[in-house]
Amino acid sequence: MQFLYSFKHMETSEALENYTEQKLAERIRKFVTKPIAAHVTFSVVRHQHTVHVSLDAGDGFGIEVEHTSVDMYASVDQLADKLASQLKKHKEKLKDHKGDRMFRSLTLVAEADGDSESVDADDILKYEAARRRLAR
What is the reported pTM? Predict the structure, then answer.
């Protein structure tokens, strides 16, 4: 997992980088298995502290999350919660989309002919691969 940090209108802070990396990494590892790159931008405008994260995952999707508050560390905490909910939502979409369609197609083929010999070996391999992905 790679993190790239940018600071706008504020001094760079290694403590803030470490805190952000710790918070985001623990949330991201739960939902993403392939390599991921995160670009984190910290900015201050008057008394508003904003954190913006742009994720590019190896799975071929990207998520952008932003949060603003009066404290930078509070912004990071809230951003981590938002990011976790978006990653969870994305993972549920993938599970529901792939798993149900594959299961229904195999069920329809098996019910139509009434015997298990009519199911193609490729369909069984696809079903098993989808079942393994859902089990993760």
Answer: 0.67
